[in-house]
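Blinded run. Sample ID left blank on purpose so nobody reads anything into the name before looking at the predicted structure. Input follows.
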Amino acid sequence: MLWFAAATCSAATPGISLNEVVADPQGNALVEVALASGGEALSAVQFDISYQSQALAFSVSPGSTLAAAGKSVWVSSPQSGVQRILIVGLNQNALMDGVLATLSVAIAGEAPPGMYPLGLTNAIASDPRGDPVPLSTGGGGVVVPGTGVSAPAITAVANAASYAAGPVAPGEIVVIGGNSLADSALRGVQLTAAGLVATSLSATTVLFDDVPAPLLYTTANQLSAIVPYEVSGQAQTSIQVEYQGVRSAPFTMAVAPTAPGIFTLDQSGAGQGAIVNQDGTINGPDNPAARGDFVSIYGTGEGQTGPPGMDGIIVTAADLRQPLQTVTVSIGGQSAQVLYAGSAGDAVAGLLQVNAIVPLGIAPGTALPMTIVIGPSSQAGVTMAVQ
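Blinded prediction complete.
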């Protein structure tokens, strides 16, 4: 499994960050949004703050650095649980490092003790010429003291095969990192009475725009889910983890038609790929594939399929689904003929199998590079062995 670390701002990179504070006995707290310009002249800043709207509310006031620069704060709400904050003025004065804004947070009286995260996303600035300057971000939150269920917090979402962060695709198997996502025990995949992969494991549910996702495993700090096919055609999706009835702040991700990744044997996203030779054995340096034989490559992120994908189904040989987009394969720098690309039989929808012939003309090797392309390419660094 992959362990994630939340992004933080550094002095060398322009960025904004939130602090983490403890609420007072009345459930109130002040959270600061701090700017570290990294030596850049920044005249305007915009960012989104995501939060659990059913558990907390906040108002925004200007920070200590705005008066000297002649800037004002403008607040809008593009969707439930998200506040968009724009800091701008009728001048091109540069903002000084320090507090851009202060959030006056009020926790709902019925909210249980725990950590209530505030996510900071979609941050962008402009310099005095009006050119955009990307900003790194670091989230924070409010801690309600006491005993009880901690609010889950999502810190990262990545392709389960490549571990690449980026847009998610319909049917993609992803890993979600964070805190208080589930109990500490490892809970594995379960099937419902209808034969579908369950969307709840040990009181944990993952929601994409309120649509529950099939779950493959859960732990306190990481879980794996399958992006519902319902996100197909959307520009973005809002992801939340709910544990024992308490939801995380929304974590917004862009949606792409495809996001291919190849599984690797050591689950690192690099090195020997999860590949089966024609004789049914696992490919590797001690068991290379023969040139001219076919191999089966396993991945995810192929996107919507024909027939259309169905969340959580176990696909049988009689009901295989194939990607809508063309699939190509490269082995050892040469194009490989694709015999089949689609569902892996008797596996959950979202697991991709690609059968390709090892090119006759490539030189043998124990670590030949290979990729699959479905729109974009799978991650670099995946290898296979050929004799």
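Unblinding after everyone has recorded impressions. The chain has three domains: 15-144, 153-254, 261-386.
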